[in-house]
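Q: My labmate handed me this sequence with no annotations at all. I'd like to see what the chain might look like in three dimensions before we decide whether it's worth expressing. Could you predict it?
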Amino acid sequence: MEFVSQRSGRNPFTSQLPISPLALAITGVLFSGFAQAEDNTLNTVVVTGNRGGEQRTVTSSPVPIDVVSAKQLQETGKPGLMEALSAVIPSLSLPEKTGWDASGMARAPNLRGMNAAEVLVLVNGKRRHTAATLNINGINTGAAPVDLDMIPIGAIDHVEVLRDGAAAQYGSDAIAGVINVILKADTSGTSVTNAGQGYDGKKQTAQQSLDKGFEIGDGGIVHLSLDARTQNADNKASANGYTYAQAYDRAGTSTYGGYGTPRINLLNLAYNAELPINDLTLYSFSTVSHREAAQGQNFRLPTITNTITTGPNGYPDGYTPVWTIKEDDYQFAGGAKGLVGAWDWDLSTTYGRNEATQGSYHNQNPSLGEATPNSFTNGTWVSDELTTNLDFKRTYDVGLSKPMDLSWGLEHRRDSYEVKKGDYASYADGGYCVSAGDCASSGAQVTNGISPSEEASASRNDVASYLDVGINPLPQWYLGTAVRYEHYNEGVGATRSGKVTTRYEFTPEFAVRGTISNGFRAPSLANSLFSARSTTYGVVDGVYQSINYGVLPVDSAAAKALGASSLKPERSTNFSLGATYTPNDRLTFTADAYVVNIRDRITLTGTLLGDEVTQVLQSNGITSTSGGQYFLNGADTRTKGLDLVSNYRQDLGAWGSLKYTAAFNWNQTEILSYKAATDIGGTEYQLMDRQARNLLTGVQPKTKLILGGDWSIDKFDVNLGLTRYGSWKEVNDADDRSLDRVWNAQWITDLDVGYHLTKDLSLAVGAKNLFDVYPKKQGVPSSTMVSSYGVYSPYGFTGGYYYTRLTYTF
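A: Here is what I predict for the chain of 810 residues:
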């Protein structure tokens, strides 16, 4: 493979900061602050990244961390945890993802501009299992991340987001940071009913959230939660604008059938329980979820071989297939904790499983001719994870100003992944041909089913140990270090991670902090086992035609013949340097700069198309497929950024109180080197083309600024949020720069107005994207006329949305 270097030789902490947004952020910081809940999350004791005995808050933590309360999540007006976190944390983004495979229905957030798979998710401090659905298109290519929307939002007490590498403390995946969801553990009860629709009437949602805690035993608690949500599809594609008689002349100008948000029905259940018994406490928590989602795909013209127009299941006017996914997801955790001598101990076991069945309807397998059915089950993907932890911690008096914190622990994790076949019609090759040499593609359109020969399963074991030590050499100086050793029995081998953290308090109001660490992300089993065959449409050699291509298992003979090799772990080096300033109990300010270098980043090749590729596929028994892709350790990257967060609270006397908001993130990823090409049959094929490289560097805005305020007066609560997203770029064609599109920065306004009808009952009305802002519509001479608004808008392209919310506490 050809290896291309793009090293700049510049200092990793220097770059061209965007002066105008930065100045605007600093100006906002001087006059406002980060909105907090009434219980003041700034003073919440954080547990993420802090295994020691000393209690720490957002400002006293040696690492940057955000705390988001349940009230803040609710006031965003967002229906799910992912969207709500994206609304209040500038370094966390949730770009719109539409029309491309199941990852448009099972979305994932990005932290500090990095892949969603590089974020570790915990629930009550215990590792959460990943989804079975693998992203094979777009920003999060290669990721099968944790699906945060499978956690009922009503079950959440608060969320802690650690914005720093933490592999030495928690293991694989914690390169970008950690999201720790803390569940409610009290006797409170809340009922929240949400309903709303888009300004144009298309997008409609309804949500019912209910939770209540009960006392059990002697001092025990169990908290139950339910979250039911429904959302209809919102398609922004325009009409095709042709008659059947014109179709032959306009065969290259179809439109996108599923350009918008998907239809989703979701049910989440959860409990969280604790029961003290003598000298120990038993605990358990669980979530159970079922989700069904559907989204339209490319329109199929009636003038092409792959559209059956006659017979009982024919579509004489063409059709738009609909991709579906049905998921069952659950997590169960149980354990005990107590005190032995001076040691606090915690023993737990957590099991999580996600099973996703994908299919399609309003579809065809054209190779079956008029015998084609219109609905298919394409296959089932299953991911499960069993984790057992034993943790100890205590303090030692070693003659320093404060006792030394000592923590150590052991972990065993077993990961499994399975790919199950679909129904026969989803992968069959019926051999239908219009004429000699003009034969229809095999398998269901959009995505072919998994055949018996493509079924696969694998599992692996991982054992780990860690040691975490924290001391105060001086009363104002904290120094911590953590080391971790892990060993996988399949493929990954042994890894070692370390972290050094320090915080120095010059005055009670001002402190500096910094960390240096290294980490890793083990390739998921899905990265190695995943296979799929899909159908798309485009212009090849000047002819508009269908293209059948497959994502090949990386260790398969066909993938190796195309240049693939077994995946290695991603490895990272993290640096951060920051400061905190708290002049009084009403104002705080934190600033943190960071650099994250990632080696051997896992990416997906572009679609390899050509005679040599087709020959390789056919020689390995893969017929009716002209193109191939596979995962590879494709690039070394460097991500640099800056987080600014400020908080201010103001008492207005008779006019109530104000809580202001100002938070800013600047983030930039550059490719240091990448695998550009491979040789197939004597011909050079591109691996990381311009489009693949732009997915790492250009499709996410480099800046995100959040300004706002929460005004409480008498029975009213008014929450105003302004979010500025920086510009982003999409590359629509790997070879033609004329099709590149750039969207300029844009402000989005959200407003939530609440009124307390009684002490326990409140009513709120609000609007997301109050001024109905869309990305600039930019048409390009594309063969499919797709995506005039782009496909990665950070604020979507469904326009304004208004809602009402009724909340009852009991």
